[in-house]
Write a sequence for this structure.
């Protein structure tokens, strides 16, 4: 990238910041105007994300030196395949949930659009930054706006969930700070590329201190990624959030995963000397435990929002376990899975609200209890009176639900299948050429859990689907606007595109995995990033 | 000085964690503030303990060893600001929760 295009790297941070600040000065009564401005900047962000993805795919990492300071001293933003992909994913989710919220949700509280844009800014910044302390700052920007967004719509349940969410995340932030401080104390740098070059030289107690620091830092990230047993906060927070907020929150847990994915090979890759491979086993085991917990949770859940939250944990666990294996093939599959599952769960959170609209809250809980008690369904309410929506509503919602279910289970023809297939194929393939050792026990455990999670999701979703779409005699057709169905359908269509274009996408993911796991070019590019030559004298 | 600092960080963090695990929201807020103090001191100490050394270059003579490490000082400033802002936000949430549930138990109900 050269010329003005180089400045595009910082656009995903600056654009939402400026737009969000602008929206803060508008009166709450001009909600429609605010929505339009937000929509405009979110679409611009999406365009930029696509441009960045193309640039990242064509080129080596783009490094943006803020203030023109050379890399280990100044702040850097780094754009490579992984960060470009995550930014695009964020932009897609943001567009979908914003359009969804414009139907009615954005009016139920104050400053929705400002907080929304700041959240996008924080997430984008975390994906782009090249040093640990800015990661903390962007993390906090993201978290602070997520506190506000979780409270959006208010009500006892949201406030209660927010209280827990804020306390858990503040505590996690302390871990983050202690970890960053320890790493700085030992190595004297916070730039991730610079860290990677200094770690091999560390020995003895310094190395142990560094590992302790990294472990404490990872605690904060794992809380965010909801690894068992650090992820229980997710189960009260996400179901309580307003649906468009929950849909965009689907990317938040991926931020923790992203940092682990990026940081572990950089700090403890194969060139890290004695520290190489630190924490891999723990991440793998933690990932498996998270999947197992998610499987049990999915089976035990009644409410759809809880099923979605547990599915999110399963997807986190899968990616975590893949990070722990640090194998290029597996990581490539996991990246595909990450993209596919994030889109799915986001769509699912939006869809749930549409399906459950019109049902009284807790209806599904009562239905199950009634079934269990063997009670006959009410005969009196058979006269249908809720036929106000457009005719095919239930059919469309049902089709979307089936698509979500296929994606979560991992059945063809959508991308969930491709993702799981890629993961399983990578796990079954013996490591390295000519290896005759067969498949290791760890891989077997991963494979079994992955398949079990599919079966559990299948059972639960068919139960829930039957209850929501087939069982009700006097089905209340929810009043749904086209603008609300459109983003859900668009997200699901995107997964279809992912599946159809599977070969191309998978190739990109594998390239990404390779460059992430062998970060030597990343390190070199960051540390040797050319400064902009000083302006010619006489221009003053 | 090192011992004094270590002991104060320990006491602050210990009391902070204990308060954090208490059931009243007010205790949780104070616990978080104490933890924040401990963490800030910890970050500061990571720049090595020096007294009377300026963090900013004053002249071109002398060696860098005459100066304190400025980075942890900048970090701690950022951490203080962010911690302050989020604690303020938490107080608002706390008041809202108190208003909705009528109790200051963290779970919104006694027992």
């Amino acid at each position: 990238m050269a010329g003005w295009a180089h400045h595009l790297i910082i656009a995903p941070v600056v654009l939402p910041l400026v737009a969000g600040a602008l929206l803060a000065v508008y009166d709450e009564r001009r909600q429609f105007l605010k929505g339009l401005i937000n929509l405009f900047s979110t679409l611009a962000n999406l365009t930029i994300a696509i441009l960045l993805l193309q640039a990242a795919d064509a080129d080596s990492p783009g490094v943006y030196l803020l203030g023109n300071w050379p890399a280990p001293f100044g702040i850097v933003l780094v754009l490579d395949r992984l960060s470009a992909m995550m930014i695009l994913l964020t932009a897609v989710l943001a567009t979908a949930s914003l359009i969804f919220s414009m139907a009615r949700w954005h009016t139920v509280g104050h400053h929705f659009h400002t907080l929304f844009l700041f959240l996008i800014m924080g997430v984008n910044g975390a994906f782009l930054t090249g040093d640990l302390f800015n990661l903390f700052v962007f993390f906090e920007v993201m978290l602070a706006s997520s506190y506000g967004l979780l409270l959006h719509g208010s009500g006892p349940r949201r406030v209660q969930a927010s209280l827990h969410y804020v306390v858990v995340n503040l505590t996690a932030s302390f871990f983050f700070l202690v970890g960053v401080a320890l790493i700085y104390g030992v190595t004297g740098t916070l730039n991730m590329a610079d860290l990677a070059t200094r770690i091999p030289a560390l020995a003895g107690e310094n190395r142990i201190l560094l590992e302790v620091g990294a472990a404490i830092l990872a605690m904060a990230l794992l809380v965010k990624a909801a690894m068992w047993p650090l992820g229980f906060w997710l189960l009260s927070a996400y179901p309580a959030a307003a649906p468009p907020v929950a849909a965009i929150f689907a990317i938040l847990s991926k931020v923790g995963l992203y940092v682990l994915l990026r940081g572990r090979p950089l700090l403890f890759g194969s060139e890290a000397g004695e520290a190489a491979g630190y924490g891999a086993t723990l991440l793998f085991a933690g990932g498996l435990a998270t999947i197992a917990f998610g499987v049990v949770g999915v089976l035990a859940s009644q409410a759809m929002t809880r099923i979605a939250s547990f599915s999110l944990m399963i997807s986190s666990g899968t990616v975590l376990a893949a990070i722990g294996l640090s194998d290029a093939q597996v990581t490539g599959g996991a990246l595909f899975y990450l993209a596919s599952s994030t889109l799915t769960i986001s769509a699912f959170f939006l869809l749930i609200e549409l399906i459950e609209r019109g049902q009284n809250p807790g209806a599904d809980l009562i239905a199950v209890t009634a079934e269990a008690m063997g009670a006959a369904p009410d005969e009196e309410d058979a006269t249908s009176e809720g036929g106000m929506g457009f005719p095919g509503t239930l059919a469309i919602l049902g089709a979307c639900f089936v698509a979500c279910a296929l994606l979560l289970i991992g059945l063809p023809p959508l991308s969930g299948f491709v993702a799981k297939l890629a993961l399983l194929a990578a796990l079954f393939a013996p490591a390295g050429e000519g290896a005759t050792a067969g498949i290791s026990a760890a891989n077997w455990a991963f494979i079994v859990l992955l398949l079990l999670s599919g079966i559990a999701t299948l059972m639960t979703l068919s139960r829930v689907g039957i209850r929501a779409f087939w069982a009700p005699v006097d089905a209340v057709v929810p009043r749904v606007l086209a603008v609300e169905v459109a983003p859900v359908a668009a997200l699901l269509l995107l997964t279809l595109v992912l599946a159809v274009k599977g070969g191309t996408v998978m190739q990109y993911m594998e390239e990404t995995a390779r460059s992430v796991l062998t970060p030597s070019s990343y390190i070199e590019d960051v540390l040797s990033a050319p400064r902009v030559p000083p302006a010619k004298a006489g221009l003053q | 000085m090192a011992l004094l600092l270590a002991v104060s960080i320990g006491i602050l963090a210990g009391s902070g964690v204990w308060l954090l695990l208490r059931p009243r929201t007010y205790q949780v807020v104070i616990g978080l503030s104490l933890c924040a103090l401990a963490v800030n001191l910890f970050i500061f100490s990571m720049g090595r303990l020096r007294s009377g050394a300026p963090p900013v270059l004053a002249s071109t003579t002398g060696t860098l060893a005459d100066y304190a490490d400025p980075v942890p000082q900048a970090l701690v400033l950022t951490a203080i600001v962010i911690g302050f802002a989020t604690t303020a936000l938490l107080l608002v949430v706390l008041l809202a929760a108190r208003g909705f549930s009528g109790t200051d138990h963290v779970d919104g109900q006694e027992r």
Summary: The two ends of chain B are 45 Å apart (CA to CA). The helical segments of chain B are 2-20, 25-45, 70-101. The mean pLDDT of chain B is 87. Residues 36-48+69-111 of chain B form one domain.
